[in-house]
Give the backbone structure.
Amino acid sequence: MNSDRSSAEISRLHSITSIFLPRHLLGRLYLFGALMAFEFVFFFFGRGQFPGHLEIFGVTTDQYGQIPLFAYLVFLGFGHSVWKAQKESVPLGRIFFGIHLLCMAAVLSITLTTQKGQGWPFLDSFGYIKSFLYFVGTILLALACVPPRSWIRAIRSSGRLWLYSSIAGVAGWFLGSFIRLLWTATSNAQSGIMQTGTLYAVRAILSVFLSNVVINPVSFTIGTPRSLVTIAAGCSGVEGIGLVLFFTSVWLWYYRKEYRFPHALLLIPCALGCIWLLNIVRLCALILIMNVCSSEEAGSGFHAVAGWISFIVVALIFSRATQRLLWMRKVPPAASCASGVPHSVGVETLPGASEQLREERGESPAIRAYLVPFLAILAAAFVSKAASGSFEWLYALRFFAAAITLWYFWPRLKSLDWRFGWFGPVAGVAVFLAWMAPAWFQHQPAVSPLGQALAALSPTTRWTWIAFRVAAAVVTVPIAEELAFRGYLARRFISREFDAVSFSSLTLLSICLSSAVFGLEHMKNLMDWQHLLLGTLAGLAFSAALRWRGRMGDAVAAHAVSNLLLAAWVLGFGDWAQW
Amino acid sequence: MKSFLKYALGVLAVLLGTCTNAHALMFKWSPEVDPSLAISAFTLLAGSLAVLKIRRKK
């Protein structure tokens, strides 16, 4: 009897948790890592300085913190293939998870209390209670995601991986402390090598164009008498190198079965060299722009965007190189067949085709029509921001980029049902009301530099800019974003053959995930929870409109109506902060 | 003994990490790192890679 009840209970729990949570050991180990990382980011960015580090062997614990994080990453990476075969379902420890949440809530409340300058009632001036709660909370999270027996099984089945991971964690900590000296200038003569190298490389290039280059190796300052920049540790190229190192490592690991090693590893230093050189070019261009315009503000947009453009370019070239360079591939890539033939038609319908055609793993060709208009908007935004200061005067580029790509792919897109009924506009009104609710309760518009920048323009220029801004918000952005987030992403979560999935058969999980990504896109900074939530709600509403009668037109109408009302609000009340 | 050391090491590692995370200093972004730009950049990169990974047949 008890056995029946417990099995029924387990199956009921699985039916609930399997919708959102991984059921098997490997997935749960990743879940623990992801939640731990999320809490790390959440607490890490939300706190001020607070004492309480323990001192072990003469070193405070903040110096040791990288060890377990790095060790767990290694543990997961190398144990992946071992645990992948274990398909036994793992129960979720709901009670442990509940207590874990209570611990984290207590940690947060202590943090907020101390940040406001109020005393902690238990006279815990060294923060040991907070440390203890965070420690217990993390242990409980580990036990909630993976029960003790499964942890023991995972550790036993992976042999001595626990030991190697621990050694790797310590080695990573040691090497990290040593490597950090490369870009951090200290009193040590050997430190700051990257800053120094970048400084002199910039001077060498600038000397070709300018005769009056000023350089100060002590303060890492370089430029001209009209424009001086300081090459800080972050400007030495280390952030780009870190990003590229992470991207290239993950890429080669993910596609490791396709490449020959160590041949493929040679591409990593090439990519790192490229990003470092592009950073030098970026600094030279920044100094030249500031020198020509005699204004630091002129180069601010370029300063912020150029690094990201460099990273994207290097990452794309790297990915193409790994596909094109035959000497580093185990299996040479097949010659491309004529594109435009639907993937699902191929093998099954043509007689004997299965012997002649072998489909590679990849995305459906239909992805281009759904995704490229949105990507064109993003790319145009980067170009536009790079050419702007604080005011994005080239905003019309976004409109034209989307309009041209939509026109190009229209022969493919016109087969979608673009009609709409009453539900779409009603959903749009609801989204607008929800979006404006926080501003409505604040009673006074937030101050925005956009209004001041527009006021400084001539009437013709101002209204031309506003016309393109409204046209983009009401026409091109709704179409491009609905194609990307609802047309592609929501269906891609269901099947690789996303164009074979009807809009009416979107699942709750696919709608929630695509809406969450849509919400992320609307965040204005890392702690902008308000726009994350509102963007997610908007995504849910647009998805509901799409699923209602399975028509793309309803989702686009909802999106367009909400953006139109927002534009009317901005222009009517001068609340420029909403743009 | 070996088993004890194994789990003791694990607990010590988590203890060190959590103490660090509980009291980490406020992180300082470089001036050119705008988180909203970062989200756009990663989206653009991921989308471009997806488009470039269009399936081929052989």
Observations:
- Helices of chain B lie at 2-22, 35-52.
- Chain B touches chain A through 46 residues (CB under 8 Å).
- The two ends of chain B are 57 Å apart (CA to CA).
